[in-house]
Design goal:
6-stranded mixed beta sheet, Purple Acid Phosphatase, chain A, domain 2, alpha/beta, single chain, 7 helices, 319 residues, 2 domains
């Protein structure tokens, strides 16, 4: 069997602050390209390791567009297998899943949702192989398991795939980040032939072919879109995993960088500097020094051309 591997699609009807292009159009172009790759590479299923949506609740506009684009490309065959990420879950609660965009897509039979906790897993068989897919939602605990055989009763090859939404990293994404290293997770779970993870928006690919006849891999596609200013160098991609050939190939999406801007970061820095200056003007460490906060603020406002709405908020906070 052949699987297209993806994660962190983050379908949305808003534009990330770092993007200056027509993001609505760009995301549908990328999603359409993924569906085209699925068809062209003759894949059997698409595996999405969480965060198909950017928010748990989808607008009617978003749902309808997703349905139209997806059905136009691959029809309505439930070839998309998903585990929910934190962005897909309302308040991160399983009990609220039926209220989410994913919950509706499941009811409409557009996607299949795996849930190891409730034993909703996928099993597919052909004359040559049996494939088992184990799905874990965001926040699920993954137990250590042992599967003693790699052949079933009919002497078919068994392939076990783990699909989960968990922060797995190659290197810390920021100073002091505490997360599971990809090599540690990979070595801890040798019971799976393929581990497909999501949540980390950077791409990771790890292959171990040391054991004869036992090919193992871990794949984290990273996000479908460049959504942040620090993703300028990110290369959106999907994986193609062939269970019979024991191969994992990377397919890069077309260069669709869009106009990524850092202007909002500069604006944030200026706001922080302004807040620090205001705090310094209002709270002097030497209480013997008499200051005139209002005059200091007015001077700062005039010098930095602060908007009236911002000034009103500050004045109200001082009342």
């Amino acid at each position: 069997m052949k699987f297209l591997l993806a994660a962190d699609i983050h379908i949305r009807d808003t534009t990330p602050r770092a993007r200056k292009d027509d993001y609505w159009l760009s995301q549908w172009e990328s999603w359409s390209e993924i569906l085209d790759i699925f068809t062209q590479r003759e894949c059997d299923f698409i595996l999405v390791a969480g965060d198909l949506g950017d928010k748990a609740e989808w607008s009617d506009w978003l749902i309808n567009t997703f349905l139209r684009v997806t059905e136009d490309k691959i029809g309505k065959k439930r070839d998309i297998i998903v585990v929910p990420g934190q962005h897909d879950l309302l308040h991160h609660q399983r009990s609220e899943f039926h209220k989410t965009g994913l919950g509706l897509l499941k009811q409409l039979k557009m996607i299949s949702v795996l849930d190891e906790q409730n034993k909703f897993n996928a099993q597919y068989r052909s004359s040559k192989e049996s494939v088992y897919i184990h799905g874990y939602w965001y926040g699920d605990k993954l137990p250590k398991r042992e599967f003693k055989t790699r052949k079933d009763d009919a002497n078919r090859k068994i392939t076990r795939i783990l699909l989960l939404h968990k922060m797995i990293i190659k290197e810390p994404l920021w100073p002091g980040q505490i997360a599971t290293k990809h090599i540690d997770f990979f070595e801890k779970h040798p019971e799976f032939d393929l581990i497909v993870s999501g949540d980390n928006h950077q791409s990771i690919k790890l292959i171990d072919g040391r054991m004869k006849g036992h090919y193992r891999a871990l794949y984290n596609s990273g996000s479908m879109m460049r959504m942040r200013a620090d993703q300028v160098d990110h290369k959106p991609q999907v994986g193609i995993y062939d269970t019979l050939e024991n191969t994992l190939k990377t397919v890069y999406l077309k260069e669709n960088i869009g106009e990524i801007s850092r202007e909002h970061l500069v604006a944030d820095t200026k706001r922080k500097e302004m807040a620090a200056s205001i705090a310094e003007a209002r709270f002097q460490p030497d209480s013997s020094i008499k200051i005139r906060p209002k005059a200091a603020f007015e001077s700062y406002f005039k010098e930095n051309k602060v908007k009236k709405s911002v000034k009103n908020i500050i004045w109200r906070s001082m009342e």
